[in-house]
Amino acid sequence: MTGAATRAEALLGALRRINRGVAILVGAGLLACAALVLTDIVLRQVAHSLGGTDEISGYVMAIATAWGMGYALMELGHVRIDILRAQGGTAIRALFDLFALLVLAGTVSLVALKAWPVVERSLTNSSRANTPLETPLALVQIPWFAGWIWFALMAWLTFLAALVLVLRGAFDAADRAIGVVGEGEVTE
Amino acid sequence: MISYATLGLLGLLSLSIPVGIVLFLLGFGLDIFFTPFPLMRGLGNLVWSTSDNPTLIAIPFFVLLGEILVRSGIATRTYAALDRWVSWLPGGLVHANVATATMFSATSGSSVATAATVATVAMPQAEKLGYDPKLFSGAIAAGGTLGIMIPPSINLIVYGFLTQSSIPKLFLAGLIPGLALALGFMAVTVLICLIRPDLGGTRRVFPLAEMMRALVQLVPILLLFTAIIGSIYKGWATPTEAASVGVAGAFVIAALFGKINAGVLSQSLLGTVKITAMIMLVVIGASFLNFTLAAAGLGRELQDMLGGMGLSPLGTILVIVAIYIVLGFFIETLSLMVVTIPIVVPLVVAQGYDPIWFGILMIVLIEMALITPPVGLNLYVVQGARQGGRMSEVMLGAAPYALTMLVMAGLLIAFPQIALFLPNAVQ
């Protein structure tokens, strides 16, 4: 394997490790949220509700979703339909994969871009949620927005690394990075 | 417009672009060509309001619950215990697949999670005992679909949320059809294996004492089911909140078996984040598409089309069933539900049908969509858990079970009480 391909592989490895770390944090957040909801259920029976757990669950869901996307991308978690692609040889499959990832990166970038006005409005108006907690919306929307930016960034970096791999003819390595989990492959 | 949208959907999907992204692209296309105002401006707000949703947090909770049960070995114990009870039937372990899926459906709210759970524990057994890979994996894919029918169910939560019908009632309504489907799957398996005994592997009969000992292994799952469902019907928790009760219960059970450690925990969390992100990309894409479809007047177009046919209420239902079957081949299931509910449910209710009943009928059709190729999520989940082999084997193996579901849909239309009896009785 050439130097460029090795570097591309190293980049993919690093992205995978970083996103694993991010996913653990996201998972821990979800776990904490489950604990909070449970506490509220118990407290409601014996005393007063904590209040606002619904609202907090919503924010956790939005932020967890955004930050989990990159990890799912690294783990080939986003569902793709493999009918035409499966008919091709390694080179054809690599082209399908690159094209799909390019479209994903473009679309996600657009979503991330369109997410900014939402945050901006909350910032300029200092909007607060229309709820008992009166959460400043920017406080929860900035991490959500950052998650989509992160997802877009991951998609572009993965695309570039995979492009290098394909150009250098390292089809197997590219397939591991951006292929489809399916025939002949073992998942956990 | 309907034909453009359908063609666009199929074309983009066949390019192997991720499903969630395809839904966004279709939305962009409809926005550009069919709507009078630029909806793109609302994209950011829509993504925010779809994901900032306290109901949907049930998804990661139920997934996490399943992950803990698998990784702490409870799924394996359950499978082994049910094997003792059903493997004497023609088809042997295939029945254990269906039975384990049924048990897990009762704790899991998602079909994908249920199929993944059963596939992970069952697949290694298939090769060891010489089962036909088609029938064996098809039964897992089909059995897994029960996850959205037998309560708790993420899809019923989404249905209740979007149609403003009672989620506890929906849960009750799903119980009998869910169990009936499970029995139907087993009956079909027996039938197939009587005709072709070579497909069914080795039948094994276990001594009664061993069967009784195995029964103990089922207690944790049954307790978990009681805790989740009980907390809803006692009015202690909403169906969404009950998911957190389930997570806690799964932790307690795993801890009692001494299976909670850093490895199990981190693997469970990673799996949860991956599956949640996968589902949510599709849900968010679907809500955007839904928004553009509504603005482009798809509802009107469909209503005109159906209205123009001058159909009786029964005729309308049959047309709707046919549409779901066709769409189910191609559209991912949660998207299918989210996209169609706002259009179809008002139409059905206007014809005098009960929305609770229709929710259950829709779930049967959605279950079918989960195992009909080319887009059948459960087929892929099961294939993902296999050690090689062709995708087409799973598809073929699932076909007889898809037919069983079709029969169930027919029965539900002929005898609505199958779904409505329980919620009415409890009321």
Shape of chain A: elongated
Q: Uncertain runs of chain B with pLDDT below 50, 5 residues or more?
A: none
Kindly report how far apart the N and C termini of chain B lie: 44 Å
Helix percentage of chain A: over 70%
Oligomer: heterodimer
**Rg over CA atoms of chain A:** 20 Å
Structural class of chain A: mainly alpha
Mean pLDDT of chain B: 86
Low-confidence regions of chain A: 182-188
Structure in words:
The complex is a heterodimer of chains A (188) and B (427). The C terminus of chain A is likely disordered. The two termini of chain A are 28 Å apart. Chain A is 78% helix and 0% strand. With 188 residues, chain A is an all-alpha fold. Chain B has 427 residues and is mainly α. Chain B is 78% helix and 0% strand. Chain B has 20 helices and no strands. The radius of gyration of chain B is 21 Å and the shape is globular. The model of chain B has no long low-confidence stretch (mean pLDDT 86). The interface between A and B is large, with 71 and 66 residues.
In brief, what are we looking at here?
The complex is a heterodimer of chains A (188) and B (427). Chain A is mostly helical and 188 residues long.
Keyword list:
heterodimer, A: 188 residues, mainly alpha, elongated, B: 427 residues, 20 helices, 78% helix
List the helices and strands and how they pair.
The complex is a heterodimer of chains A (188) and B (427).
Chain A: H1 3-46, H2 53-74, H3 83-87, H4 90-125, H5 137-167, H6 171-178
Helix pairs in contact in A: 1-2, 1-5, 2-5, 4-5, 4-6, 5-6
Chain B: H1 2-14, H2 19-34, H3 43-51, H4 58-71, H5 74-86, H6 93-105, H7 111-129, H8 133-145, H9 154-163, H10 167-195, H11 208-233, H12 239-256, H13 262-295, H14 298-308, H15 313-330, H16 333-350, H17 355-371, H18 377-385, H19 391-414, H20 417-426
